[in-house]
From TrEMBL:
Top-level taxonomy: Bacteria, Bacillati, Actinomycetota, Actinomycetes, Kitasatosporales
Xref: InterPro entries: AKR2_Oxidoreductase, NAD(P)_OxRdtase_dom_sf, NADP_OxRdtase_dom
PANTHER family for this protein: D-THREO-ALDOSE 1-DEHYDROGENASE (PTHR43312), NADP-DEPENDENT OXIDOREDUCTASE DOMAIN-CONTAINING PROTEIN (PTHR43312:SF1)
Superkingdom assignment: Bacteria
Pfam families found in the cross-reference section: Aldo_ket_red (PF00248)
UniProt domain NADP-dependent oxidoreductase: residue ranges: 50-307
Protein name: Oxidoreductase
Organism, scientific name: Streptomyces aurantiogriseus
Amino acid sequence: MPFARLASATTPTCHLGLGLAAVGRPGYINLGRDHDLGEDRSVEALRTRTHELLDAAHAQGVRYFDVARSYGRSEEFLADWLKARPEIDDIVVGSKWGYTYTADWSTDAEQHEVKDHSVRTYERQRAETAELLGDRLDLYQIHSVTPDSPALTDKELHAKLAEAAAQGLTIGFSTSGPAQADAVRAALAVEVDGTPLFRTVQSTYNALETSAAPALAEAHDAGLTVIVKEGMANGRLAEPHAPDALKAVAAETDLGCDAVALALILRQPWAGVVLSGAATTSQLASNLHAAVVDLDENQLARLTALAESPQVYWERRGQLPWH
């Protein structure tokens, strides 16, 4: 399994990965995006920015990189970077299928992505991903599974995914929404010929949204690698939007709110990879300080008290504008 490469890494950032959702397309829901990206959001500007981030991340020990079909040109940008650096053979690449990017490189599109977990979409997007990433792809995930997703019950799809797994591709899924725990548990029960189908799960978990933790612990115990996304709550846990309690703890550690927020996740025994969603190299450098944050019991208690109900969290997330 490719994630064994991460487990054997010796760098302090071996469990921090880089997700390219924020830089693979001009529009996204992260707070502060206007400041982060500026006015030039052309394809070439974001390609250059992505390559700078990838260079910085790899140089600082990051070995997992996360993209998706719906993240604009993220797969293309990553593929270009890999082709220009053939000597890099120590990384793990994960992508996702199930959403189609529909914004046509616009920040004010009426609809930015369309969800479809059908076999037809899987076959189309698998071919698109293969054309770009080829054999550099290690992990392919169903994007944003919910408890009612047809991907959990579609036997034809399961057979297709099992076939890909037999050819060496790791198969996983990601979750979103207030019922993440239910989706994780339902996915853990999916088998093909008596063998569990999924080897990884990627879920939202952060100081504000902790509801999936018990299910993620169960997934870890079942042998899945747990990847944590949205650790910064789409910017709600970063300056200047961070809650006062987080700002106070960050001041006590002499590090940024982002490093503290990600450090809280790294403490979870079930967390295998925690994603940075940095849009700038300075943000990335600050994020990577999470590996050296040492939180005491009092600080942990204050941060734990920030958790919202999943209904409140996801309702607020759904109200974030595409910048």
